[in-house]
């Protein structure tokens, strides 16, 4: 029907001419959701759909369907690329032991990075296993044991972990089996256990090259590296410490953690008070 009018074509196919000419109208609420998504991703460039959707529902109070928000996020090109990985069949992992209250059990680990001039820096990360709250990040080129003890010392007036209670029997059995070979402390990464006791902690050892035994802080290390450490080329230790301090406050007070039920570590700590 080349050259036919729209009215003739609509009558031929049995379609209403009004329906043919009617265009989809953009919903004002969709524009508001799009603006909020753009604002969140501009501030937090590493946040995907899940971390952006929870603040819309739990913080902003918008009652919107997750499929609708996901569609708008994809139309804006905000969805992160997920790198496919080969999945290996493994047995069911042992359930992580979680403390019943804050300040009972914590984890600590060291991270390494390089500045723009190639110098290597080290960052100790301390975490409370109860609410996954970051207790401190202190970076430098060299970290003597006294500075690490000071980071964990409860007498500084900061939130800190310890002293630890006696381990449950199942943990003692697992440690006894894993006592062969080199070990590293799980909660205080010191080579000398006396330094951990000096800070008021009982170091809990885990086997070397077994990150699953220290899962809380290993997952926290990934978040640190993904959300700020790999995003910037840092010139000085002072600049790295400023980034760490700002990010740590955001992590504890603004970033909703899916591992503790979609709330912030500060909210879970307040609920436990």
TrEMBL record:
Transmembrane segments: none
Stored InterPro entries: Integrase_cat-core, RNaseH-like_sf, RNaseH_sf
Pfam families in UniProt: rve_3
GO function term, MF aspect, one: nucleic acid binding
One Gene Ontology biological process: DNA integration
Domain Integrase catalytic: 98-273
Gene3D superfamilies: Ribonuclease H-like superfamily/Ribonuclease H
Protein name: Transposase
Species of origin: Rubellimicrobium thermophilum DSM 16684
